[in-house]
Each structure stands twice: as C-alpha cells, then as structure tokens.
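Need residues for this backbone.
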C-alpha cells in the first residue's frame, strides 16, 4: 500500500536526534568495556499502523552506518519481519537494510510461537520472550561490539488491557533502558508512571549495595559501575539502570492497513522466505532469488507437536498446580490431511526415545518448512524446504499459520 505525496513537516529530525542520543550511549559503552557496560536497549511501542517497523529499520541503518553491530529484536509475531509470521526473532545487522527488501538476515535467533497475536497464548509468548532475552544476554557476553551496540526492539500493537502489562514484561525481560512511544499519549503516561517506580527500585538497590560495601569495610573502594570499579561487579549495568521514555510523532506517510492487506503481507513474507525476492526485467517478473526444494518424508522420520493446550479450570487441577503450565507444554499432532498448507517450524530439539516433550518449548528454531501434501496411503508427507538435503531436525512445530502457495 503506497501513497506518494510531499509534506512540509516530517518527524525525521526527531528520529535523527534519537539516533544521536543512542549513539552517545554506545560510545560510553565502547569506552568502558572492562566493566561490561552495555549499549542502549531501545524498545519502540505504539498502536497499530504508527510506523514502528519503519522506525526500527531506520535506527538500525543509522547505527550500522556508524560501524555498529546492533541487534534487531522483532517481537511482533504478527509481522515476522526477520523470519516469518508466528515467531519472535533477533538478528545481528552489519550492513544497512534495503527498504524494498525489508528486514532480512541469514542467521537469526528465533523462537516458535505459532500465532499472529500475543493475546492468543499470553503465557507461551512471555515464556519465549524470556528465552530469547537469555540467549541475547549470552551473545552479548561473548562479543563486546554487539554488547556496546545494543538492541533495537520492535513490538506488537497490543497496547490496551493486558497488552500494556505484556510490554512491561518485555522491558523487564530484555532490560530495556530506552522506550520510544509513537503517537500514543495515554500509553506514554502509563509507562512513565511505571518506569518511575522501577527507577526508584533500582536506586534503592544501589543504596543497599553501597551500604553493604561499607559494612564490608570497602568504604574507600570506588562504587560499582564507576571508572575505577574494575572487576568487582561486572554485571552492574545489567542490574542497575534507569528506564527513559521518549515520545515521538508518527510519520504523516503512515496509512491504516485493513486486515485483508495484513493477511496478504503475511503471505508475502512467507513466500519471500522460500522464494526470496522477485527478479524483474523490463518491469516483468522473470524469476526469484531463491529456489526451494521438495522433500518427501516418511511419517516415522519426523515428530510433529503443537505448543500449548486449552486452559484447564483451576478446580480441575490438583492442589498447587499452575493452571497456565499446560500453555507451554508440547502436544503430539497426528499426521493427517489437515496438516496440508501448514507452516511448520523445525525445532533444534533433539529427537530421542527419552526426550522430555515439555522441554521442547525451550529450544530455538532452525528454519521452516511448508506442508505441500500428506499421503496417507504411502505414509509420507511432502514438504517445501528452502534448502536441499534432509531436514536439520526431526521435531516439527505446528501453529495456526497456514499458507496457500
């Protein structure tokens, strides 16, 4: 959906200023590698159709052009800009993205969700956000340049009711210290009040730490996080940080996308995963940049699961049992014709006789396959795979995402 127009006012100046402020934080982190100071972790929030994805892409490109290696964290499971819809992902960028090609990266860290809205399985969504955050923390510990460059985080458009609570969970899990609120005054006000309380907690924790040091006869030692603190508290900047909110205007070029258009966008994103971008000549499409392969797989060589089961009423559960636990449990899926046209995630979970299926949710995704057909007579399933050869894993995860090629 493209609209060509000329405007006398643009929010790009505020976006550039935001980048400059983030760059200052990256410089401070780069100059203090010894103490594991981390770069900015910037989350972009707002309602639907305010340009969150485009702002994310803009800030990523600005950072890359300054020689940084930022991580794009895509928590918008409805769009799936890094991989496919129905997932949350994080990808490292070392070169600018092209607007017409979207957000692409060859080696993302990705987790299966299977739905296009977080409210469908809120407990499952929170669980994989925490798993993704843990994986990114481990990556930052291994690479100083990645840690100092920080995150740019794109979020879903659910900003009412439990959606706001979910945003706060994301901020806590990913240790976000900058929140950009696009065109939403009420959300800005609510998050500002919450952030003020969180910052007060962090300040109190610092005070308690100083008191403890004094009690340990370290009164003359430099405070943690200062220039001379050395190796005494390496994770200081992960424990104690302030959350800053910035309110930004949306671009006048942002348009409202109806649901049929969103559906078409998701289908195009899935097609792009398998076929790449179209190759044109004389304004005609003559091919594509990728060539997927068809695999015929016997039933007994793969195991298909879905994550989450319908919620169980509290009165049906044993005493002390968590009613939300079943939302992250894996349930076997029978191989039938109903699987046709499903998009399956290839899990990195190992397949063995003694595998704990409840642990499958903890594993990241290696890629995706599309179910072309299911042959019940031959007990085989035909899959469309982005690469030749066998599947990289035997555990396949089914969600609600379907696609008609």
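Answer:
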């Amino acid at each position: 959906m493209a609209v060509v127009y000329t405007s006398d006012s643009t929010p790009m100046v505020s976006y550039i200023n935001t980048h400059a402020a983030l760059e200052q934080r990256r410089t401070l982190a780069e100059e203090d590698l010894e103490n594991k100071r981390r770069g900015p972790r910037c989350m972009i929030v707002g309602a639907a159709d305010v340009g969150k994805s485009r702002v994310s892409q803009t800030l990523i490109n600005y950072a890359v052009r300054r020689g940084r290696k930022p991580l794009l964290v895509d928590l918008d499971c409805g769009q799936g800009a890094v991989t496919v819809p129905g997932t949350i992902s994080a990808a490292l960028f070392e070169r600018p993205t092209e607007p017409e090609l979207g957000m692409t990266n060859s080696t993302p860290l990705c987790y299966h969700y299977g739905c296009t809205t977080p409210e469908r399985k809120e407990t499952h969504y929170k669980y994989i956000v925490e798993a993704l955050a843990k994986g990114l923390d481990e990556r930052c510990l291994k690479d100083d340049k990645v840690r100092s460059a920080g995150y740019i985080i794109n979020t879903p458009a659910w900003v009412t009711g439990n959606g706001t609570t979910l945003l706060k969970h994301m901020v806590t899990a990913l240790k976000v210290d900058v929140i950009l609120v696009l065109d939403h005054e009420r959300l800005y006000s609510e998050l500002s009040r919450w952030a003020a309380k969180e910052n007060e907690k962090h300040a109190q924790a610092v005070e308690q730490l100083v008191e403890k040091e004094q009690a340990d006869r370290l009164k003359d030692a430099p405070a943690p996080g200062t220039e001379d603190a050395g190796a005494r508290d390496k994770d200081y900047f992960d424990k104690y940080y302030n959350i800053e909110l910035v309110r930004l205007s949306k671009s006048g070029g942002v348009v409202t996308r109806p649901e049929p258009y969103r559906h078409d966008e998701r289908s195009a994103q899935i097609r792009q995963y398998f076929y790449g971008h179209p190759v044109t000549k004389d304004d005609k499409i003559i091919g594509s940049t990728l060539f997927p392969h068809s695999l015929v797989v016997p039933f007994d060589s793969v195991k298909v699961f879905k994550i989450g089961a319908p919620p169980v009423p509290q009165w049906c559960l044993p005493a002390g049992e968590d009613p939300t636990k079943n939302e992250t449990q894996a349930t076997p899926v029978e191989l039938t014709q109903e699987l046709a046209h499903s998009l399956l995630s290839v899990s990195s979970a190992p397949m063995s006789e003694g595998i704990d299926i409840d642990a499958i949710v903890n594993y990241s995704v290696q890629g995706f396959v599309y179910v072309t057909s299911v042959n019940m007579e031959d007990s085989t399933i035909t899959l469309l795979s982005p690469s030749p050869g066998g599947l990289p894993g035997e555990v396949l995860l089914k969600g609600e995402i379907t696609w008609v090629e």
